[in-house]
Amino acid sequence: MKDIFTGKVVWITGASSGIGEALVKAFAESGSRVIASSNDSAGLERVKEECSGMKGSVSSVTFDLSDTSDIRTLVDNVIQKEGRVDMLLNIGGISQRALLKDTPLWLDRRIMEINYFGTIALTKAVLPHMIAAGGGHIAATSSISGRFGFPLRSAYSASKQALHGFFETLLLEHHTDNIRVSVIIPGRVQTAISLHALTAAGREHGKMDDGQRGGVTPGKAARQIIRGLSRNRREILVGSSELLMLWIRKYLPALFFRLAGKIKPM
Protein backbone atom coordinates (compact mmCIF):
# COMPACT_ATOMS: atom_id res chain seq x y z
CA MET A 1 0.00 0.00 0.00
CA LYS A 2 1.14 3.53 -0.67
CA ASP A 3 2.70 5.31 2.30
CA ILE A 4 0.33 8.26 1.79
CA PHE A 5 -1.96 6.53 4.30
CA THR A 6 0.67 6.19 7.04
CA GLY A 7 -0.49 8.01 10.17
CA LYS A 8 -3.95 8.69 8.77
CA VAL A 9 -6.99 8.13 11.00
CA VAL A 10 -9.26 5.82 9.01
CA TRP A 11 -12.76 4.88 10.22
CA ILE A 12 -14.17 1.74 8.58
CA THR A 13 -17.68 0.34 9.08
CA GLY A 14 -18.57 -3.27 8.31
CA ALA A 15 -15.12 -4.02 9.72
CA SER A 16 -15.73 -7.42 11.34
CA SER A 17 -15.80 -9.43 8.09
CA GLY A 18 -15.44 -9.37 4.31
CA ILE A 19 -14.24 -6.26 2.52
CA GLY A 20 -14.32 -4.16 5.69
CA GLU A 21 -12.07 -6.60 7.55
CA ALA A 22 -9.66 -6.76 4.61
CA LEU A 23 -9.47 -2.96 4.53
CA VAL A 24 -8.81 -2.76 8.28
CA LYS A 25 -5.84 -5.12 7.90
CA ALA A 26 -4.49 -3.35 4.82
CA PHE A 27 -4.61 0.09 6.44
CA ALA A 28 -3.15 -1.23 9.70
CA GLU A 29 -0.27 -2.76 7.74
CA SER A 30 0.34 0.64 6.14
CA GLY A 31 0.67 2.40 9.49
CA SER A 32 -2.77 3.98 9.65
CA ARG A 33 -4.68 4.49 12.90
CA VAL A 34 -7.79 2.44 12.13
CA ILE A 35 -11.16 2.74 13.86
CA ALA A 36 -13.04 -0.49 13.16
CA SER A 37 -16.82 -0.49 13.50
CA SER A 38 -19.53 -3.12 13.23
CA ASN A 39 -22.46 -4.43 15.25
CA ASP A 40 -20.41 -7.60 15.91
CA SER A 41 -18.22 -6.81 18.92
CA ALA A 42 -16.71 -10.32 19.02
CA GLY A 43 -15.79 -10.08 15.35
CA LEU A 44 -14.16 -6.70 15.92
CA GLU A 45 -12.08 -8.07 18.77
CA ARG A 46 -10.91 -10.92 16.55
CA VAL A 47 -9.89 -8.49 13.80
CA LYS A 48 -8.07 -6.28 16.32
CA GLU A 49 -6.15 -9.26 17.65
CA GLU A 50 -5.16 -10.36 14.14
CA CYS A 51 -3.81 -6.85 13.51
CA SER A 52 -1.63 -6.78 16.62
CA GLY A 53 2.00 -6.23 15.77
CA MET A 54 1.27 -4.38 12.55
CA LYS A 55 2.78 -0.99 11.81
CA GLY A 56 -0.44 0.86 12.58
CA SER A 57 -3.06 0.52 15.30
CA VAL A 58 -6.66 -0.67 15.45
CA SER A 59 -9.32 0.44 17.92
CA SER A 60 -12.96 -0.63 17.81
CA VAL A 61 -16.29 1.16 18.13
CA THR A 62 -19.33 -1.10 18.16
CA PHE A 63 -22.59 0.30 16.82
CA ASP A 64 -25.52 -0.77 14.69
CA LEU A 65 -26.26 1.09 11.46
CA SER A 66 -29.98 0.44 12.00
CA ASP A 67 -29.94 2.61 15.15
CA THR A 68 -28.25 5.98 14.72
CA SER A 69 -30.25 7.83 17.39
CA ASP A 70 -27.07 8.66 19.33
CA ILE A 71 -24.67 8.89 16.39
CA ARG A 72 -23.48 12.44 17.07
CA THR A 73 -22.44 11.57 20.63
CA LEU A 74 -20.62 8.49 19.33
CA VAL A 75 -18.78 10.55 16.71
CA ASP A 76 -17.91 13.29 19.22
CA ASN A 77 -16.40 10.64 21.50
CA VAL A 78 -14.32 9.23 18.63
CA ILE A 79 -13.06 12.70 17.71
CA GLN A 80 -12.22 13.43 21.34
CA LYS A 81 -10.18 10.21 21.54
CA GLU A 82 -8.54 10.22 18.09
CA GLY A 83 -8.34 13.97 17.46
CA ARG A 84 -9.67 13.74 13.90
CA VAL A 85 -10.94 11.42 11.16
CA ASP A 86 -9.04 11.68 7.89
CA MET A 87 -11.00 9.01 6.03
CA LEU A 88 -14.45 7.53 6.56
CA LEU A 89 -15.09 4.31 4.66
CA ASN A 90 -18.77 3.33 4.82
CA ILE A 91 -18.51 -0.39 4.04
CA GLY A 92 -21.25 -1.87 6.26
CA GLY A 93 -24.64 -2.86 4.87
CA ILE A 94 -27.10 -5.67 4.24
CA SER A 95 -28.46 -7.37 1.13
CA GLN A 96 -31.74 -9.02 0.14
CA ARG A 97 -32.98 -12.23 -1.47
CA ALA A 98 -36.72 -11.80 -2.03
CA LEU A 99 -39.08 -11.11 -4.90
CA LEU A 100 -40.48 -7.60 -4.93
CA LYS A 101 -44.08 -8.85 -4.72
CA ASP A 102 -43.25 -10.85 -1.58
CA THR A 103 -41.25 -8.13 0.20
CA PRO A 104 -43.28 -6.40 2.94
CA LEU A 105 -42.88 -2.66 3.28
CA TRP A 106 -41.31 -2.99 6.73
CA LEU A 107 -38.46 -4.96 5.15
CA ASP A 108 -37.92 -2.27 2.49
CA ARG A 109 -37.69 0.23 5.34
CA ARG A 110 -35.24 -1.91 7.32
CA ILE A 111 -32.89 -2.33 4.38
CA MET A 112 -33.10 1.38 3.58
CA GLU A 113 -32.47 2.23 7.25
CA ILE A 114 -29.24 0.25 7.33
CA ASN A 115 -27.83 0.86 3.85
CA TYR A 116 -28.91 4.44 3.28
CA PHE A 117 -29.92 6.23 6.48
CA GLY A 118 -27.27 4.54 8.62
CA THR A 119 -24.57 5.50 6.14
CA ILE A 120 -25.63 9.10 5.68
CA ALA A 121 -26.21 9.60 9.42
CA LEU A 122 -22.60 8.67 10.18
CA THR A 123 -21.38 10.75 7.25
CA LYS A 124 -23.34 13.83 8.36
CA ALA A 125 -21.99 13.48 11.90
CA VAL A 126 -18.35 13.17 10.76
CA LEU A 127 -18.49 15.81 8.01
CA PRO A 128 -18.36 18.98 10.22
CA HIS A 129 -15.28 17.65 11.99
CA MET A 130 -13.57 16.97 8.65
CA ILE A 131 -14.39 20.47 7.41
CA ALA A 132 -13.04 22.01 10.63
CA ALA A 133 -9.84 19.96 10.24
CA GLY A 134 -9.29 21.22 6.68
CA GLY A 135 -10.63 18.28 4.69
CA GLY A 136 -10.91 14.54 4.42
CA HIS A 137 -12.02 11.64 2.25
CA ILE A 138 -15.43 9.93 2.55
CA ALA A 139 -16.37 6.77 0.69
CA ALA A 140 -19.66 4.88 0.48
CA THR A 141 -20.22 1.35 -0.73
CA SER A 142 -22.79 0.90 -3.47
CA SER A 143 -22.98 -2.16 -5.75
CA ILE A 144 -23.26 -2.89 -9.44
CA SER A 145 -26.96 -3.33 -8.66
CA GLY A 146 -26.80 0.22 -7.34
CA ARG A 147 -26.55 1.16 -11.01
CA PHE A 148 -29.39 -1.03 -12.27
CA GLY A 149 -32.24 -3.19 -11.04
CA PHE A 150 -31.70 -6.89 -10.45
CA PRO A 151 -33.98 -9.82 -9.50
CA LEU A 152 -34.49 -10.45 -5.76
CA ARG A 153 -32.74 -7.15 -4.88
CA SER A 154 -35.49 -4.50 -5.16
CA ALA A 155 -34.93 -2.81 -1.76
CA TYR A 156 -31.18 -3.43 -1.82
CA SER A 157 -30.84 -1.94 -5.30
CA ALA A 158 -32.97 1.07 -4.34
CA SER A 159 -30.94 1.73 -1.17
CA LYS A 160 -27.67 1.60 -3.09
CA GLN A 161 -28.93 3.79 -5.93
CA ALA A 162 -29.96 6.39 -3.33
CA LEU A 163 -26.37 6.57 -2.10
CA HIS A 164 -25.16 7.76 -5.50
CA GLY A 165 -27.42 10.81 -5.40
CA PHE A 166 -26.42 11.70 -1.85
CA PHE A 167 -22.67 11.32 -2.25
CA GLU A 168 -22.48 13.03 -5.63
CA THR A 169 -24.26 15.98 -4.02
CA LEU A 170 -21.83 15.86 -1.10
CA LEU A 171 -18.94 16.10 -3.54
CA LEU A 172 -20.46 19.02 -5.42
CA GLU A 173 -21.33 20.98 -2.28
CA HIS A 174 -18.09 20.44 -0.37
CA HIS A 175 -15.21 20.11 -2.83
CA THR A 176 -14.15 23.64 -1.85
CA ASP A 177 -13.84 22.36 1.74
CA ASN A 178 -11.30 19.80 0.50
CA ILE A 179 -13.77 16.96 1.02
CA ARG A 180 -13.01 14.13 -1.40
CA VAL A 181 -15.77 11.64 -2.13
CA SER A 182 -15.66 8.14 -3.62
CA VAL A 183 -18.43 5.64 -4.29
CA ILE A 184 -17.25 2.03 -4.22
CA ILE A 185 -19.08 -0.24 -6.70
CA PRO A 186 -18.42 -3.92 -5.99
CA GLY A 187 -19.51 -6.74 -8.23
CA ARG A 188 -19.00 -10.28 -6.96
CA VAL A 189 -16.77 -10.59 -3.91
CA GLN A 190 -16.33 -13.69 -1.74
CA THR A 191 -17.94 -12.33 1.44
CA ALA A 192 -20.78 -13.40 3.73
CA ILE A 193 -23.18 -10.82 2.30
CA SER A 194 -25.45 -13.41 0.68
CA LEU A 195 -25.43 -15.51 3.87
CA HIS A 196 -26.79 -12.57 5.87
CA ALA A 197 -29.09 -11.24 3.13
CA LEU A 198 -32.71 -10.93 4.27
CA THR A 199 -35.52 -13.05 2.87
CA ALA A 200 -39.12 -11.87 2.57
CA ALA A 201 -39.71 -13.11 6.11
CA GLY A 202 -36.80 -11.03 7.42
CA ARG A 203 -34.66 -14.09 8.13
CA GLU A 204 -31.11 -14.63 6.90
CA HIS A 205 -30.79 -16.25 3.48
CA GLY A 206 -28.05 -18.52 4.84
CA LYS A 207 -26.62 -19.53 1.47
CA MET A 208 -23.60 -18.49 -0.55
CA ASP A 209 -24.62 -17.46 -4.07
CA ASP A 210 -22.91 -19.47 -6.81
CA GLY A 211 -21.77 -16.35 -8.64
CA GLN A 212 -20.46 -14.77 -5.48
CA ARG A 213 -18.46 -17.88 -4.62
CA GLY A 214 -16.52 -17.35 -7.85
CA GLY A 215 -15.92 -13.65 -7.20
CA VAL A 216 -12.71 -11.89 -6.21
CA THR A 217 -11.35 -12.34 -2.70
CA PRO A 218 -11.90 -9.63 -0.05
CA GLY A 219 -8.15 -9.02 -0.12
CA LYS A 220 -8.17 -8.30 -3.84
CA ALA A 221 -11.26 -6.12 -3.42
CA ALA A 222 -9.47 -4.14 -0.70
CA ARG A 223 -6.46 -3.61 -2.98
CA GLN A 224 -8.71 -2.34 -5.78
CA ILE A 225 -10.43 0.03 -3.36
CA ILE A 226 -7.18 1.35 -1.92
CA ARG A 227 -5.81 1.98 -5.41
CA GLY A 228 -8.94 3.95 -6.24
CA LEU A 229 -8.79 5.94 -3.01
CA SER A 230 -5.12 6.79 -3.56
CA ARG A 231 -6.03 8.14 -7.01
CA ASN A 232 -9.06 10.03 -5.66
CA ARG A 233 -11.44 8.17 -7.97
CA ARG A 234 -15.04 9.35 -7.73
CA GLU A 235 -16.21 5.83 -8.57
CA ILE A 236 -14.17 2.73 -7.72
CA LEU A 237 -15.10 -0.46 -9.56
CA VAL A 238 -14.40 -3.67 -7.66
CA GLY A 239 -14.59 -7.14 -9.12
CA SER A 240 -13.91 -8.88 -12.40
CA SER A 241 -15.75 -9.70 -15.63
CA GLU A 242 -19.21 -9.09 -14.10
CA LEU A 243 -18.43 -5.36 -14.16
CA LEU A 244 -19.05 -5.49 -17.91
CA MET A 245 -22.75 -5.38 -17.05
CA LEU A 246 -22.31 -1.71 -16.11
CA TRP A 247 -21.15 -0.86 -19.62
CA ILE A 248 -23.78 -3.04 -21.27
CA ARG A 249 -26.50 -1.32 -19.22
CA LYS A 250 -25.18 2.10 -20.21
CA TYR A 251 -24.51 1.56 -23.91
CA LEU A 252 -26.65 -1.45 -24.85
CA PRO A 253 -29.71 -1.28 -22.60
CA ALA A 254 -31.83 -3.64 -24.71
CA LEU A 255 -29.13 -6.29 -24.43
CA PHE A 256 -28.84 -5.66 -20.70
CA PHE A 257 -32.52 -6.40 -20.06
CA ARG A 258 -32.29 -9.61 -22.07
CA LEU A 259 -29.22 -10.75 -20.15
CA ALA A 260 -30.38 -9.65 -16.69
CA GLY A 261 -33.57 -11.61 -17.10
CA LYS A 262 -31.58 -14.79 -17.73
CA ILE A 263 -28.92 -14.42 -15.02
CA LYS A 264 -29.35 -16.77 -12.09
CA PRO A 265 -29.76 -14.24 -9.25
CA MET A 266 -28.48 -16.55 -6.51
Reconstruct the topology from this structure.
Blueprint: E1 9-12, H1 18-30, E2 33-38, H2 41-50, E3 57-62, H3 71-82, E4 87-90, H4 105-133, E5 136-141, H5 154-174, E6 179-186, H6 193-196, H7 210-213, H8 218-230, E7 235-238, H9 244-251, H10 253-260
Parallel strand pairs: 1-2, 1-4, 2-3, 4-5, 5-6, 6-7
Helix pairs in contact: 1-8, 3-4, 4-5, 9-10
Structural class: alpha/beta
CATH superfamily: NAD(P)-binding Rossmann-like Domain
The third-level CATH topology is Rossmann fold
Question: Which of globular, elongated, flat, extended, rod-shaped describes the shape?
Answer: globular
* Unreliable runs: none
Please characterize this protein's 3D structure.
The two termini are 34 Å apart. The protein contains ten helices and seven strands. It has a single domain (3-260), classed as NAD(P)-binding Rossmann-like Domain (Rossmann fold, 3-Layer(aba) Sandwich), CATH 3.40.50.720. With 266 residues, it is of the alpha/beta class. A seven-stranded parallel sheet has the order 3-2-1-4-5-6-7, with helices on both faces.
